[in-house]
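Internal ticket #5521
Category: modeling
Description: The requester needs a full-assembly model to guide mutagenesis choices. All entity lines are attached below as received. Residue total reported by intake: 289.
Assigned to: D.W.
Attached entities:
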Amino acid sequence: MIFKMKSDPLTTTFAALADPTRRAILVRLASGEATVMELAAPFAISQPAISRHLKVLERAGLISRGRDAQRRPCRLKAGPLLEAADWAQHYARAWEERLDHLGAVLQELQDKATQPTVRRESRHGRDK
Amino acid sequence: MDVTSKPGRSRVTTPSDREIRTERTFDAPRDLVWRAFTEPELLARWWGRGNPLVVERLEVERGGHWRFVEHAPHGTYGFEGRFREVTPPESLVMTFEWDGMPGYVLVNTIGLEDLGDGRTRVVSTSLFHTTEERNGMLSGGMEEGLNQSYAALDQLLDTID
């Protein structure tokens, strides 16, 4: 059906954050860029395993990789993290926006009720 | 605690760790506000926040089904639920579910208070099943890592700022 949703960015962000190794990698990158080798050093896992984690983080938009083919240093990207932190307010903000529009509709309905003649005249011709 | 508060507009609070409450006063009589919540053609004019909204169902009665589809510039978002309580013109209690997070249901209570001077206070309270859902309405399998994720997130955000 038409309402099939793609996985939303927030879910991807949280899925990436759900793993302790990946969180540790992000915390490390928060203090500056690092290569795969540097990132792998403190962990008791292989470099390819670290690379797989980096791929997940990259897909979630949480890190970017440098172009230098040799080093490909990783950098933290703050955008999705800030969005994720913001989620608690997202739902509330949606309500805020709805209420803004509700206010406008209520105003319009009352204008129509109190000034029927004026409204009709001013809109004369356009409604037809 | 106040989460966001824009002067002269609404007051958003989190009365408990599972709730989000939004309150705003409108310069309109309660009957009119009630109609704006319960008549499809009126509701379609505001619920979509400026985006076109298709009201597919709006059965305003206990057990009645509602389903709205918002057509935003970057995607289509379906929302639905059922009415638990309908008390005209004072309150509506309904379940609320987003297609993007199927199975995660919150309960939304809309209270309309007649302030007696032609104004109406609208109070929307959303009760989430768990704190985790309030904080993210996350899909399955991630609940475990969630609190740690938030701790990590806080830590990271501190570093970034």
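Resolution: model delivered.
Comment from assignee: The first strand of chain B starts at residue 2 and ends at 5.
Ticket closed.
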